[in-house]
Amino acid sequence: MADQASMSSLSLEAAQRGQKAAVMTAPDPDDPLAAKYGDAGLVASQAVSGRVWTRVEDLNASFSDKEVLLRGRVHTVRGKGKSAFIVLRQRTATLQVCLFANDTTVSKGMVKYASQITRESIVDVEGVITLPSKPVEGCSQSDVELQCRGIRVISRAAVLPFEVTDAARSEADVQAAAEKGEVLVTVGQDTRLNNRFLDLRTPANQAIFKLQSAVCQLFKDYLLSQGFQEIHSPKLIAGASEGGASVFKLDYMGTPACLAQSPQLYKQMAITADCERVFEVGPVFRAENSNTHRHLCEFMGLDFEMAINEHYCEVMEVVEGVFEHIFTGLATRHSRELAVVGQQFPFSMPEFKRLRLTFAEGIKMLQEGGYPD
Amino acid sequence: MADQASMSSLSLEAAQRGQKAAVMTAPDPDDPLAAKYGDAGLVASQAVSGRVWTRVEDLNASFSDKEVLLRGRVHTVRGKGKSAFIVLRQRTATLQVCLFANDTTVSKGMVKYASQITRESIVDVEGVITLPSKPVEGCSQSDVELQCRGIRVISRAAVLPFEVTDAARSEADVQAAAEKGEVLVTVGQDTRLNNRFLDLRTPANQAIFKLQSAVCQLFKDYLLSQGFQEIHSPKLIAGASEGGASVFKLDYMGTPACLAQSPQLYKQMAITADCERVFEVGPVFRAENSNTHRHLCEFMGLDFEMAINEHYCEVMEVVEGVFEHIFTGLATRHSRELAVVGQQFPFSMPEFKRLRLTFAEGIKMLQEGGYPD
């Protein structure tokens, strides 16, 4: 009974937010296609079926007429009488899933069931890939769509504090709608941060996290190719690594300890220990009570240290090389993620240029720029 | 004056430890080969000479009769009248450098200068690679040696708390010597840990750190190939991640905070946020006051989390795959480092086998092993 009460309270909320209150979770047993839809039981490692799921991002025109099985989130759902359209989302990729009631492959019950799936539910969808007559607007896989032949909810989403579609909207879209007199819902920063797991589902955030991972790999791969090795230095240390004030202090089994403000000492000791070239990707802790957009008390440091044979330009070459490798790597191997971020937050990639100025050239540039003294 | 005083006190210590007290840092100006040896000035980024240093580990018979320039540590040095032998060390690689006084390429002064270089000094050595009539014992590059034609100390080592050669000795070597009635110096654990930068210069420790870096890369590379992405979760958090007792607590700008005992919550949130497959390599903090060989209050966690489609065996496959990749990668790509560790600490690599037992099979094995209940 408690469950029912809570369900009806959820349904009320859902109704208030414009969603359908009634939820159909099982097919009508008289439906000849009853085996093709309905909520699945809890995934409980009962058997290995051998079924193979296709990735949404891999779908393109070459899949035409092929049968696929997909697992993804219901990004949006639209039911219209005898048809339903679901946008299925997998990380940064979206696909239109179509259901048109007919007598052979899609029943009216199936359309009704699909129409009532709550957004953000996880579903398994089976069907045939077809090529739409014109590109599907607003889907990343715009040159294909799926004719649904079976759909099961794997995990049904309850009412959410905000819609991922609303959180994924660009400023430009909101403004364009406003100019047409429409008001599009936006999601404030506080709401996003209080529900970070949901905010991270937006394609732009998915892409940002993928790019963050990529930057680390590009940094490491380049340095490894240049004879560096990775080290991990202690974060719990006996004294301040740098200035004395901005350090987090703690009790280490009765002894005072600090959190490392940088791996500096350990990197340098590694060089003295003949490691020659080392790098670390690890957290850095700084107890700076500066509440600006440019300060973080904890951040990931991408750090390297190397022995110099005769000139500091050897270090400059590595710095230039690592930045060039990162920028080129992002532009060539991760253009898709960059484009996804750009859809919500338009930007242009800076062009990487190696630049070395002598002191005299720097002075000259300053003077020419209007700073004669 | 203070410098001289401290130098003579160092020399005295050196003499007590059996090293030569006198130190020759500059050649006799009347030596016709005076330009070929003597201490170099401080490396101060004055000019880019364009000189190319060869790596000791790269040297082999194909370098015969070639001129090379090497920078490394003086591992051992032995002067005998008109000849001197230096073992030059670069991380895990060592090479014999020979000086025989003659009238054209090596002067008596040069031999004397070389004989007096303190162990662990950094030197630049130039010369011609030759093939010894029999393999050089105790050097990693045993099929080549260098006929020195020029030698300069780049950084002269002071008297050290222990010799790297003594720290690099295996138990077997010490025992074998003892059986012959010789006593070889060994270095205690405390002395090593109090001078960690020096202890890490032993070939075995160099190899261990290289292998540690390799394990991280193999872990990451495999998971990246399986669609995982790297995340970095916060280490400063508001509450305990796991059990309440064994957590380090600290003051975060007037608010109580904890150090993360695991990235568990954040990994799981990443999955809920549709990241699908994530991993983290990062520090883990546990305030367990257990002073055993099996406990560390801070360690690097190699951790991954993934969404399961239908069965936990999907996770087992990844676990098996990652271990197989690491073991195979070490055995194939890092056999040299494994061999170097084995010279000081003999071991055999475990063979990796994929093994899955059902509960029934496990019970059967226990019963057959003498545990019937």
From TrEMBL, chains A, B:
Q: Which residues cross the membrane?
A: none
Which Gene3D superfamilies is this protein grouped with? Answer: Bira Bifunctional Protein, Domain 2, Nucleic acid-binding proteins
Enzyme nomenclature, EC number = 6.1.1.12
Q: Where does the record place the Aminoacyl-transfer RNA synthetases class-II family profile domain?
A: 209-373
Spell out the InterPro entries in the cross-references: Aa-tRNA-synt_II (IPR004364), aa-tRNA-synth_II (IPR006195), aa-tRNA-synth_II/BPL/LPL (IPR045864), Asp-tRNA_synthase_2 (IPR004523), Asp/Asn-tRNA-synth_IIb (IPR002312), NA-bd_OB-fold (IPR012340), NA-bd_OB_tRNA (IPR004365)
Q: Which domain of life is it from?
A: Eukaryota
Q: Broadest EC class? A: ligase
Q: What GO molecular function terms would the record report?
A: aspartate-tRNA ligase activity; ATP binding; RNA binding
Pfam families found in the cross-reference section? tRNA-synt_2, tRNA_anti-codon
Which reaction is the catalytic activity of this chain?
tRNA(Asp) + L-aspartate + ATP = L-aspartyl-tRNA(Asp) + AMP + diphosphate
Record's subcellular location = Cytoplasm
Keywords from the named record: Aminoacyl-tRNA synthetase, ATP-binding, Cytoplasm, Ligase, Nucleotide-binding, Protein biosynthesis
Per the record, its GO cellular-component terms are: aminoacyl-tRNA synthetase multienzyme complex; cytosol
**A single BP term in Gene Ontology:** aspartyl-tRNA aminoacylation
Q: Which PANTHER family match?
A: ASPARTATE--TRNA LIGASE, CYTOPLASMIC (PTHR43450:SF1), ASPARTYL-TRNA SYNTHETASE (PTHR43450)
Q: Which family does it belong to?
A: Belongs to the class-II aminoacyl-tRNA synthetase family. Type 2 subfamily.
Entry protein name: aspartate--tRNA ligase
